[in-house]
Design a protein that fits this description.
This protein is 41% helix and 14% strand. With 300 residues, the chain is α/β, with parallel strands linked by helices. The two termini are 35 Å apart.
Length: 300
């Protein structure tokens, strides 16, 4: 398996397509999801672009976090820039899914000279606004079912003055039962598993790799910068910005979509009708074509 050393850590990465084409860097979400499930889509994008995807430090095939260590959002961003240097890539286009969208936004803001453009795929830019988007989406289902406990929980998240950390922690307790999943058009688990079984090869890694994300995720949840609101960064980025967002996505809600439309310089919004959080799984051809068209337009 290919690895590169970043800040004395072994980082697993994958590479697709010709190095003579624009480079797209895939930043996975989760936090702690790994790039494994994206590998088939990365291969498809590799027909049009040079694609790099990797497991973030502390995740799956990359080095685990040392015991009792701490990792912040901004440290992950800094490691991403160090990886660019190690791989000898002059500049690239960060493509962040979900939590990876936060990393992509911060990266493009902090390293403008290393960024040709930036792509957000159902991103999380603010823990507070993501928590509120989830509460807004699920609340009608709980009210209809007379679920007092969950209705109260959602309304607490939507209250003015609640902190980002408290709102996010409460949102993690929202019950995604069958009725809620249907109401919110959450991905069908059986269909998703069938996709994985058909398109994703068994990585054949030691059992302990699968559990690394627990420490990784907790470390980020304990980090203050996870709860910052990064939405204002959108107006500071002068490079082209593309937002791909599913009609029913609960991570990037209406507030964030409107904010992007109003404040993102050189921004393009591509809504995916009928999709939720995994546009690359739900509309793979449209997803590939949308990104390829955007990337190739940069060279015209």
């Amino acid at each position: 398996m290919p690895y590169t050393k970043v800040s004395e850590k072994q980082i697993y990465y994958e590479e697709y397509g010709s190095v003579n084409k624009p480079t797209v860097l895939y930043l996975h979400g989760g936090p702690g999801e790994s790039c494994l499930t994206y590998s088939y889509q990365a291969k498809k994008l590799g027909e049009y672009c040079h694609v790099i995807s990797f497991d973030q430090h502390g995740v799956f095939r990359s080095d685990a976090l040392p015991e009792n260590s701490r990792l912040s959002v901004n440290e992950l961003v800094e490691m991403t820039e160090q990886m660019r240097i190690e791989l000898d890539i002059k500049s690239w286009i960060p493509l962040g899914h979900s939590f990876g969208g936060m990393l992509a936004l911060i990266y493009a803001h902090n390293y403008p000279d290393s960024t040709n453009a930036v792509i957000y795929d159902n991103p999380m830019w603010s823990a507070l606004h993501t928590a509120r988007a989830i509460a807004e989406a699920t609340l009608p289902s709980f009210e209809k079912a007379n679920n007092t406990e969950q209705t109260t929980l959602c309304k607490e998240i939507l209250q003015d003055g609640i902190s980002a950390k408290e709102a996010f922690e409460k949102s993690m307790s929202i019950e995604m039962n069958d009725d809620v999943r249907r109401h919110c058009h959450v991905i069908d688990t059986d269909s998703y598993n069938a996709y994985i079984n058909e398109h994703i090869e068994d990585p054949q890694v030691p059992e302990e790799c699968w559990g690394k994300f627990i420490a990784f995720r907790q470390s980020l949840f304990d980090s203050e910068d996870f709860y910052e609101n990064y939405l204002p960064y959108l107006s500071d980025i002068s490079k082209p910005q593309l937002l791909i967002v599913g009609e029913y996505d609960m991570t990037c809600g209406e507030y964030e979509r409107n904010y992007f439309s109003e404040h993102a310089q050189n921004g393009t919004l591509e809504p995916f009708a009928g999709c939720a959080h995994l546009s690359w799984f739900e509309e793979p051809q449209k997803y590939t074509e949308t990104i390829a068209r955007f990337v190739l337009s940069l060279t015209e």
